[in-house]
Amino acid sequence: MGDGNTVERAMSGLGSTMVRAGEKLRKARTEFGKAHEPRQRAVTALLACIAACAVTSLLLVQWDDAALIDYVELPSRDARVRTIETNEQRDPDILLINIDEAALAYGDSWQSAQDGSAAADRYAWPWPRHVYSKIIRYCREGGARVVVFDMIYSESGPNTNQAMLVREVNGNLTRMWTFDQAGDDLFAMEATAQDDVALALVLGATNRSKDVRDDLLPAYAGKLKGDGQPELLDSVADRYAKFRTAEAPYPALLDGWPSLVADGRSGAEGADKKLASLRKRINGDPWLNDSPRLRSLLPVASTPPQGVAGLGLVMGFEDIDGVLRRYDVVGAHDTRLYRTLPLETWRLFVLSYAREFTAAGRLEDFNSRFSGLVLTAQGLECDGVTYVLANELQDVPVSIEGDTASYLGRAMPLDGSSRVLLRYRGYLRPDQNADWNYLSPEQQQAVRDRHPNDRLFAVYPQLSATDILRDWDFLSDNRFKTAETQRLNALIPDLEKSLASAAEEDRDALQAQLSDARMRLKAVKSQQVHTLGLGEPSAIVKDKVVIIAATAIGLLDRHDTPLDSNTPGTWVLATFFDNLKNEDFMTESPRWLAWLLALFGAAFTVVTVLYAGQLRNGLVLTLLLAVLVLVAGWVAFEQQHFLPLAAPLAGLLFGFSHGALAKALTEGAQKRQRESFARQYMGRELVDYVIKNPGALKLGGENRAMSVFFSDVAGFTTVTETLGPNNPERLVELLNIYLERMTDLMLETGGVIDKYIGDAIMCFWGAPVDQADHAVRACRGALTCRAELQRMQPLFADSIRGIAPQLIKPDGTVLYARAGINSGLMTVGNMGSSKRFAYTVMGDAVNLAARLEPQCKEYGTDILIGQNTEKLIRGEFTTRAIDLIVVKGKSEPVEVFELIGGKDVPQFVADMLKHWNEGITLFRTRQFEQALASFRNAAHHETTQEEGELNPSRLYIRRCEELLKSPPPPEWNGVFVKKTK
Question: Is the C or the N end of the chain the one with fewer CB within 10 Å?
Fold first, then answer.
């Protein structure tokens, strides 16, 4: 069969592969169901949508106070906060002061000597509260607007407040003043001296006996107004129902009456004089005045008794997963409403500016600073009502209109639980902290080394109270030294003058006083002037809201927040105040939107998967929708809004899973079976093309630049005649093994098998899918097939050794194939009749490829390629020009080349090509004698060296010898005309 004409056999063929595939597809559609029919597909999509939406709905239905999806949605919000939120928007007016272990140790050693050494005895828990008085005095010195203590001052007694002790002296019981241990009284008098301190109101769930604080708390109660009151009151009542008592603060902070004159709160006669006497005694106490640390508490302010300026609730309620994300505007206790501490802080902040600007006559400056508020000579106008400043704005109600609360010109969007959704800031960089500019370069580097991620565990600038306490003591001591020096400098001249005119009996006393004054002045002058570690207080706290944070062990107040599971509670309050001041709370979508997005996503994804063709297309579209949801969530977050992510993503997930399952049950198996069946007749590329383009199953064609390959087994007729009569099954096995392996290799290069004609193979590249490198693919496939055929020769030999050993050639080969390749413009498409057609190629370029394959025998080559193919692969493979020929039926010559191998060839091949190229050039210029010498040199390097076997060099040696004997006519141009196909 190898001696027959390939084109003729190809044209006669074994049948139409394309029409058979079409018939099989139609048959499969009948046999395997009607899953592709529009009505059946619509029913399948509807059922899958219902199932996907039902499963999605189970996640969205609220069970008790939450839905299952909330356990995913809420952490997704936290992830957005941690990954997107920055710290650039934090309010610059907030400063935190941490009461840490070092600060408490500093303030705990009260009985210290002049040299600063601490006494051995130390206070037990709680620590002495007059430590906090220093912080208040420091903040007032620096011009802070509000001082907020987020601490629990729940009790007062001998452990924290013992102003007088009874001691035995010389056998007699004597009362001794111990103001250094009267921490609660000193703190209460300092905290209530001005309208700038706010304290935390903490409620408890246990019952206790009624005490004084229960009568004092109502003075701090707030008011509500607006049509949204009922919903908010119901929500607040539910959350606060379990709280029965107020645990903090202790009574002295609520009315300003120290324990030593507690009868003043009951209206006792002479209480004011007793309080004034107490203040005088404290200010003159020698023990306090002799201690550098204690005298920084003096003088105690002389103001009428009054409660602390602000008192706000600090009761945080976590979400279902234990994370604190939202906060109440007001809380309930004993039938009254109390503002939360951030609102109280805002009230005092506004009050501070209102009083200052009123006194300075700068009303317009206030109005430009505080939008929504108008300051007039009569007071502060809010929501059309004017409130006098003398009432400290305590009578301003919180307005609830719909789902928005407002207070003193600031709006607060309320969520479904009537709380505000906090917008947490990101972490600070080290250089954004309050102490950074006061650190040495070495200290700054140490901070960076401790925080390699370039962020502190801090949201707002913070300082250790140690630095505040130390600087206040230093500042007070420096002032004391200055005042004492001035006093002594004035006293000594007076004593000297008195001594000069004094009577004899008074001289010794005056001399002693003078000597003591001189010694004391010398001692004072010898003491160094302290350098403040943080500089002047105004550089630290000017116009700030200072929040005192409890970070020491035993004072620790930690919460799980979107930032961290160990977040200080003070950060939560600072965040609330920041959001309130700048009106940038977070908002969230209503729950119905989550339902809508989830169910729409589920239904849409089911339809997409079922109608998107291949499953991977549905997967890509689903992933694109998921990305779109995430991008929308990011954009919404930038606008301070939490768009639901978990619900729509869950809808997409269940929609895809149900769509994929429905596709697998109804279409997947059938489609795979039909495609597998069709691929038995067509290549994968052609089957995929037909599936994607069903309209291609019709007559018609197009012109394309392509490459075509023809191969044939040499001498296969002999193999057929030898094996056919007695061993037909071995003949079929041998042929199938050959065709199977060659086909696989061609398909791997992207080729399309046009047809098999017995032992012949026709394959093309460049259609139905465009392939710019079709020539390279064809040549690579041909070389790979040649190498694989050589490797398979032992297999072929073993299979026939016992039945037809005569078919095994001396070199061990059994099957030898030749191939022809050509490239050019070809017509490709469905050729035939309307009842029977095939997807094939035709044209002059195809005919030339078909004629090149049998020409291999005449030249002793394996693979011949046309000149168009050689141009397209030049530089990619090794070739040599074989001849200029005119094929039968044509008049124009074409140059044909042998495809030898890849770019890199052995040295002997390179040597052969060198002599060959010289010879072919000489031959075509009629220099036959010189060409003969070159071809003889080339022949030594040919791969075929067996006696009697033809190779190109031997062919041209023969031609040169003949032309030397009979020179060609003058018009000879080296072209050979082929008389046969």
Answer: C
